[in-house]
Design goal:
Length: 200
């Protein structure tokens, strides 16, 4: 009886577990010099997301490619961030991110624009669930720097609801009238912050 209950609980956990998509951004051959000589292996860079506002990246090293990818994927899942999206498709405002010599600029875009971004940045936007965005990478084109700079910028992204809650105001007080209706449609896409609007 207890065994049946445990199996049932296991199935429930599997059904409730979020589904993630992943994208391999880069795979490089690496080596480490030791007293015995050089040890060769592979380093993988992977981006993971639920395509509904959550995204993360990870780097994994191993002697074999599949194991390096697995390690990178697991690390990406452990350090995911949540990013509020406008209408579930674009950013709420223009943002800039930096990491080392890399700098990226990301701008909100109207419906139908698509994802205008380079390879590493495109992977982040696709896994995040962004459908319309215009971005530009300045400086270092190293994929690791580009992704870290992109994540740095996305961490600064705030929805009008978050800003209104922090200031103790209503969303309508900090948005132009033409944007209020659009922001109200975000409720279905950003459930975690919907309560803040109701309280406001």
């Amino acid at each position: 009886m207890a065994e049946r209950e445990n199996r049932g609980r296991g199935r429930n956990r599997e059904e409730q577990a979020p589904e993630f998509a992943d994208r391999l951004v880069a795979i490089n051959r690496v080596s480490k010099t030791t007293k015995g000589g050089k040890n060769f292996g592979f380093a993988a860079l992977v981006v993971v997301g639920d395509q509904k506002g959550r995204v993360g990246f990870g780097k994994g090293k191993a002697k074999e490619v599949p194991e390096a990818i697995r390690k990178a994927t697991e690390q990406a899942k452990r350090q995911m961030i949540r990013v509020p999206l406008r209408d579930g498709r674009t950013l709420h405002h223009d943002i800039e991110g930096r990491h080392g010599a890399g700098r990226v600029v990301m701008r909100t875009a109207p419906v139908g624009t698509g994802i205008i971004a380079g390879g590493p940045m495109r992977a982040v936007f696709e896994m995040l669930g962004v459908q319309d965005v215009v971005s530009k990478s300045i400086g270092s084109q190293n994929p690791y720097n580009m992704i870290r700079a992109t994540i740095d910028g996305l961490k600064k992204e705030q929805s009008p609801r978050n800003v209104a809650q922090r200031r103790g105001k209503k969303v309508a007080d900090i948005l132009p009238k033409r944007d209020v209706i659009d922001e109200q449609s975000d409720v279905a896409h950003n459930a975690p912050v919907a309560e803040a609007t109701a309280d406001a």
